[in-house]
From TrEMBL, chain A:
It comes from Abeliophyllum distichum. The keyword Repeat does not apply. Keywords: Nucleus, RNA-binding. CDD domains: KH-I_PNO1_rpt1, KH-I_PNO1_rpt2. Belongs to the PNO1 family. Residues 138-211 form the K Homology domain. PANTHER family: RIBONUCLEASE Y (PTHR12826), RNA-BINDING PROTEIN PNO1 (PTHR12826:SF13). GO terms for cellular component: nucleolus. This is RNA-binding KH domain-containing protein. It holds the Pfam family KH_PNO1_2nd. InterPro entries: KH-I_PNO1_first, KH_dom, KH_dom_type_1_sf, KH_PNO1_2nd. One of its GO terms (molecular function) is RNA binding. SMART domains: KH (SM00322).
TrEMBL record, chain B:
It is found in: Nucleus, Nucleolus. The lineage of its organism: Eukaryota, Viridiplantae, Streptophyta, Embryophyta, Tracheophyta. Pfam families: Mpp10. Residues 99-113, 156-173 have a biased composition (Basic and acidic residues). Keywords: Nucleus, Ribonucleoprotein, Ribosome biogenesis, rRNA processing. It comes from Abeliophyllum distichum. Its main location: nucleus. Residues 99-288, 493-539 are annotated as: Disordered. It comes from the Eukaryota. GO terms for biological process: rRNA processing. Residues 114-155, 201-237 have a biased composition (Acidic residues). This is U3 small nucleolar ribonucleoprotein protein MPP10.
Length: 233, 539
């Protein structure tokens, strides 16, 4: 219904234009076929792209992020609702965060960005870090498991996890600071948030740590890489 | 052999056989022939029987030769001859001591037939002696047979050779005399001198002379002292008897010529040319021998020069060029470029320990110091990895990065730079304070570009040269410290009029203030009143 009206409206406008266009050349040429002028459409609104239908995203909440979500809800809600213009709500029963486009959502990609943002938070990243996803286009979140790199069992696995984090997390922070990424080590899963090249560097360092190289070696490599990257600019 | 008893028949037979033996050539004696042996037996029998009357003690009446071998025959002869020899010697010694007895003997002989008998006996003695000699020779011949052919030869030869030698020696003497005559021109003197020389030479002769003398003695003994006893003969002949040598009798090596050369050698001190002239290979003079030696030496040396040198004389020799293990035998001398290892003794260790202790006490260690390496490039800014959680969020980080890239803002100071700045500031402050305290270097305060309100302080701060103990307050002059204006007088200094004037001023001020206060109060009251009234009105 609405679409029809819309079409109708459009048609009307189109016809108006056509009529106007027809009116102009008719007196000029009688025997040739009348060519229509190139139509000039106004850009579609985000709402209209999907044929006026709202779009949804549903992000499940893992139990361990439930309480942090509750604590950081306002920080999540504000940028999404205010800046991205996406409706957000928490489905308590289903333990999901649901996102929905509004009529005045400026960009189609906003919804996806918001979904990514919320998903990043669910992975374990801080809100401050996850917000970067909203602001920058080129940021990605990559996840992999320790077993993807090397099958470790029992003590070895625990030691590998320990090697990754370092004492008080210093190794992880060192990698984060050097590569401008954010790393979340959740048991055997590792998530990295950052730009593509930075993710690669961070991933390489983490993999070498998993495979057994000492932290000092990884540091030296990191220094070299970052120096090279800094030199470029 | 038939033994003949009759002496008359035997005598001529024996004599004939003797003569025959004498006439035979010496080489014939080498080969055994029955004829010769028969003749020898007969001769010995004859001799034995003829000698029998003079040897009373002999057990045999006649020599038994039938069926007896040479040894047995000789034994018989020896039995007879030994006592005979002794008696004869005794007689001879007697005659030697008492030569007048010989005359007596002769006289006696002349006087009577005994003389003849004496002479006969003498002759017989002589004959006997000769016969004895011959006997001995024959017996020796028979004994030895062909074995001692040489000896026989030598004996026979000697018997003949002696005489030859004598003759030759005589010739020698004549020649020598003539030669020396030529040189010196005096014959007699020469003779004597020569003799003297020869005798001297005899005395000088070393081994040869001794040997020969010894042999001479032996010969003398053997030959019943015939030769040696004749002292007169010896003196007359001189060289002949006294200098009779081995060669004369056995004729082994030398001929007269050799002797001549030897004689020449004896007189070589004066006659070198004669020695040189003589160039015979058989016997050489000492000078010639030396020359020969020299020549041979020269030859060997020349030979050695022609041949390739030994490995020792060659320059660089590898192991392949020299025989195996030859370097071990040679005393090699080469430079040792390596210092020999020090021998560690107790003293050495004690000295080392002493040195170590001293150094430790001093604290002076010879540590190796790295030479300062020149920096080839600018040292890169070392990126310090911050191991703390970053305070900025990820978004802020990327924002900064973006901003830096685009260049809107100047490059943000890195973490290390900020710290450096802070540190330098602190240090400057500290330095200023320290300098002020020490008065060594006056440095003005550092200019800190700050927007801050400053007190009205003079721009320049000059250094006040005052001792440390003086504080700033004391440094100020009284005028600077003075707050006030005009001529200040103390209360005690004031006159009555001035005192009064002050009081009047004070009063006036107080009054003015009080009026002001009241006026303000009135104003406030009026305002509140009006407000209050207004408020009242409204409600």
């Amino acid at each position: 219904m609405s679409s029809a009206t819309v079409n109708g409206g459009e048609a009307a406008t189109g016809t108006d234009i056509e009529a106007a266009a027809v009116q102009a050349p008719t007196p000029a040429a009688t025997n040739t076929v009348p060519f229509a002028q190139k139509p000039n459409f106004k850009p579609l609104k985000a709402h209209e792209i999907s044929d006026g239908q709202t779009q949804f995203r549903k992000v499940p909440v893992p139990p361990h992020r439930y309480t942090p979500l509750k604590k950081a809800w306002m920080e999540i809600y504000t940028p999404i609702y205010e800046h991205m213009k996406i409706d957000i709500r928490m489905n308590l029963k289903a333990r999901r965060v649901e996102l929905k486009t509004r009529k005045d959502t400026p960009d189609v990609s906003n919804l996806q960005k918001c979904a990514d943002f919320v998903h990043a938070f669910m992975l374990g990243f801080d809100v401050i870090d996850a917000v970067a996803l909203l602001r920058l286009d080129e940021l990605y979140a990559e996840s992999f498991e320790i077993k993807d790199v090397k099958t470790l069992r029992g003590e070895h696995l625990s030691r590998a996890i320990g090697r990754l984090s370092g004492k008080g997390g210093k190794t992880k922070f060192a990698i984060e600071n050097a590569t401008k990424t954010r790393i979340v080590i959740a048991d055997t899963k590792i998530h990295i948030l950052g730009s593509f090249s930075n993710i690669k560097v961070a991933r390489d360092s983490l993999c070498s740590l998993i495979l057994g190289s000492p932290a000092g070696k990884v540091y030296s490599k990191l220094r070299a890489v970052t120096a090279r990257m800094a030199e470029r600019f | 052999m038939a033994s003949t008893d009759d002496g008359g028949g035997a005598k001529p037979v024996g004599f004939d056989s003797l003569r025959r033996l004498k006439s035979t050539e010496p080489p014939l004696f080498l080969s055994p022939s029955p004829d010769l042996s028969q003749a020898a037996r007969l001769a010995s029998q004859y001799l034995f029987s003829s000698l029998k009357p003079f040897a009373p003690k002999s057990p045999f009446s006649q020599l038994l030769t039938e069926g007896f071998d040479a040894e047995q025959i000789w034994q018989q002869i020896d039995l007879q001859s030994q006592p005979l020899l002794l008696s004869l010697r005794r007689h001879l010694r007697h005659f030697e001591k008492n030569p007048e007895d010989i005359q007596k003997q002769f006289d006696l002989d002349r006087d009577s037939d005994g003389l003849e008998s004496e002479s006969e006996s003498f002759d017989e003695d002589e004959e006997d002696e000769v016969e004895e000699e011959e006997e001995e020779e024959e017996e020796e011949e028979e004994e030895d047979g062909p074995d001692d052919g040489e000896m026989e030869d030598e004996e026979k030869g000697n018997a003949d050779g002696v005489e030859d030698k004598f003759l030759k020696i005589k010739e020698l003497e004549e020649y020598l005399v003539d030669d020396e005559e030529k040189e010196y021109g005096l014959k007699k003197e020469k003779k004597k001198r020569k003799r003297g020389k020869i005798t001297d030479k005899d005395e000088d002769e070393d081994e040869e002379g001794d040997e020969e003398d010894d042999e001479d003695d032996e010969e003398e003994d053997n030959e019943l002292g015939l030769m040696g006893l004749d002292d007169d003969d010896e003196e007359e002949d001189g060289s002949k008897m006294g200098t009779a040598r081995y060669e004369d009798f056995f004729g082994a090596k030398s001929t007269g010529q050799g002797q001549k050369s030897k004689l020449f050698g004896g007189s070589d001190d004066l006659d070198m040319d004669d020695g040189n002239n003589n160039q015979k290979k058989n016997t050489l003079s000492t000078h010639e021998k030396e020359l020969e030696k020299l020549r041979s030496e020269i030859e060997t040396m020349e030979k050695a020069n022609l041949e390739p040198k030994t490995w020792r004389m060659q320059g660089e020799v590898t192991a392949a060029k020299r025989p195996k293990n030859s370097a071990l035998e040679v005393d090699l001398d080469f430079e040792h470029n390596v210092r020999p290892a020090p021998v560690i003794t107790e003293e050495v260790t004690a000295s080392l320990e002493e040195l170590i202790q001293k150094r430790i006490l001093e604290g002076r260690f010879d540590d190796v110091q790295k030479p300062p390496t020149l920096p080839s490039r600018l040292p890169r800014e070392k990126i310090e990895l911050d191991e703390n959680k970053s305070k900025k969020g990820l978004a802020a980080l990327y924002e900064d990065e973006y901003v830096q890239k685009t260049g809107f803002v100047s490059t943000a100071l890195s973490f290390s730079d900020e710290q450096k700045k802070e540190a330098s500031m602190l240090f400057k402050k500290l330095c200023l304070k320290l300098d002020a305290l020490s008065h060594f270097h006056f440095t003005p305060k550092p200019v800190i570009e700050d927007m801050s309100i400053q007190a009205n302080v003079p721009a320049l701060a000059m250094e006040e040269i005052a001792p440390l103990a003086v504080s700033d307050a004391a440094m100020l002059a009284p005028e600077e410290l003075f707050v006030g204006k005009g001529d200040i007088k103390e209360e005690t200094e004031l006159t009555k009029a001035e005192r009064k004037r002050r009081r009047a001023n004070k009063k006036r001020k107080f009054k003015a203030e009080a009026t002001k206060r009241t006026a303000r109060k009135v104003q406030q009251n009026s305002v509140t009143n009006s407000a209050g009234a207004g408020g009242n009105d409204e409600s």
